[in-house]
Design goal:
Blueprint (H helix, E strand, L loop, with lengths): L17 H6 L2 E4 L2 H11 L7 E4 L11 H18 L6
Parallel strand pairs: 1-2
């Protein structure tokens, strides 16, 4: 599994672009407003991509322990659901 992180703000350390969306199979956003912004700016690039809103307020500091706990609780089930089954 490969992951990448990018932001919707133009001044983000890694601004989101259509190339990164084309690379992704699955896209996570923190809030519903992020999903709306994503669709408004990159509608065509989202074709065939599943966008999951984690319903986590975008108010946490980078790597804040509470943020990590919430991300693990909400992201991991989606990743497990997409993981290939072991042979046998």
């Amino acid at each position: 599994m490969e992951t990448a992180s990018a932001g919707l703000r133009r001044d983000a350390d890694v601004p989101l672009g259509p190339e990164l969306l084309e690379w992704a199979d699955l896209v996570f956003v923190m809030e519903r407003r992020h999903r709306a912004q994503l669709a408004g700016r990159f509608g065509l690039a989202l074709r065939g991509r599943r966008v999951i809103c984690l319903e986590i307020p975008d108010r946490f500091a980078f790597m804040a322990p509470e943020l990590i706990e919430r991300l693990e609780a909400r992201v991991v089930p989606h990743l497990r659901a997409r993981a290939p089954l072991p042979p046998g």
